Amino acid sequence: MSEYKPEDNDNTPPSVPDEYRRESPYPPKSWDTLPSAESPAKKFNPYRIEPEPEKTAPAYNPYKPPVTFYNPANPQNPYGQNNNPPTNGGYPPDQSMYGGYRSGGVQQQQPPTPTVPVRNVQSSPIVTYTILGAIGFVFLVEFAFQAGRGSIGALGSFNLDTLINLGALQKDMVRQGEIWRLFTAMFLHASLLHIVFNGLALWSLGMHLEQQMGRTRFLLIYFLGGLSGSLLSFGLGNPSAVSVGASGAIFALLGGLIGFYLNHRFIFGQMGRSQLNSLVFTAVINFVILLSIPQVDNLAHLGGLLSGLFLGYFLPSDYRQRSAGKALEYWAVFALLIVMGALLYLFMNQHVTNL
C-alpha cells in the first residue's frame, strides 16, 4: 500500500470510493463533495490553514447613532473626517462604551466617569498661610511690647506680664468676664522656639487638611478646635496657670485629619489607611512626649484633638454624595457649639471641680 504524501500547495483531498461513502445529516464539506466536471477531486492537505472569516460591522440599527472610529493606520487624520478627537473614546454620549464590534479601527474603552468628585489638590492653601502670617504678626507685637518694657529673655521668651496684657488665658480673669481670652490665647506664643515648632506643625497639617477638606471646613476645625482646647484648659486646668499658644488648634487639625481618613478609609483604599495609621501614631507619640513636660497645657491639646476628630469625621465631604440640605450637613458644628456653650456655663459657675 502506497503512503499518501501531500504535495506543496495541493488542496485536493483524496478520492473516496463510492462503497465507502454514506449519507450524513450534516452539509457536505468541500473535501466531501464528489468529483465532477465542474468540481474536480482535490487531495486533502492537512497542512493547509483555513483563513479567519472576515469580521464585519453589526447590522445597521436606525435607533443607534453613528459611531466615530479611531484608525491608527492614518496618523494624519486618525478620526476620519472629524479632526477633533472624540470626547468619549469614540462613542456618542448615549451609547454604551462596552458594546459592539468596530471594524476598521481600534475600540477605545474609557473608564466610567467617577460619581464622587475629586478636590483640586493643586490649589494654594491660602487660609493656612494667612493664619501663619497672623501668628507671626502677633509675635512681632509681643516682641515690640516686651522690648518697650524690658529685655527679651533667652530664646526670645517673654515674661508673664507681657502675655497677660496681650490676652493670655488666665482662669480667674476669664471667670471675671474676660471670655475673649479663650480666643486671643491661640495667637500668642511664649518664646521664639514655641512659635517655630507650632508654625512648622501648622504648616504641615494645615496644608494637608485644607487641600483635602477645603477652606471652610479648615476654618471650622481650626477655630472651634482651638476654642475647645482653651475651654477645657480653663475649666479643668491649674487656676494659677497662664496658657498661650496655637497648639490646641493644631491638635484639632491633627484630629480632623484622623477623623477624615477614618470616615473615608474605604474610598482612599490602602493610601488612606496608611495615612490614618501615620496620623494616629503621630498623635500618640506627641502625647507621650508632651506629658513628660510640666509646662505644657495637655488639656488644651486633648480638647482640640477630640473636637477636631468629631468635626473631621462628621463634617460633609466633597468625596461623598450629599443628600441633606446645606444647613443640615453642618449639624456637627451646631452640636459642638451647644456642648461648648454648656461647658462654658458650667465652668463659669464653678459646677465642675478642678482636677
Automatic annotation (TrEMBL):
Location of the region described as Disordered in the Swiss-Prot/TrEMBL record: 1-118
Membrane topology (UniProt): Multi-pass membrane protein
Top-level taxon in the UniProt lineage: Bacteria
TM region positions: 126-145, 182-206, 218-236, 242-262, 274-293, 299-316, 328-348
Family: Belongs to the peptidase S54 family.
A matching Pfam family: Rhomboid
Gene3D superfamilies assigned to the protein according to its UniProt record, in alphabetical order: Rhomboid-like
Cellular component GO terms, alphabetical: membrane
Domain named Peptidase S54 rhomboid: residues: 177-315
Species, as recorded: Candidatus Chlorohelix allophototropha
Protein name: Rhomboid family intramembrane serine protease
Keywords attached to this entry: Hydrolase, Membrane, Protease, Transmembrane, Transmembrane helix
A biological-process GO annotation: proteolysis
Chief location: membrane
EC number: 3.4.21.105
Compartments where found: Membrane
Keyword Transmembrane: yes
Low complexity composition-biased segments: 70-93
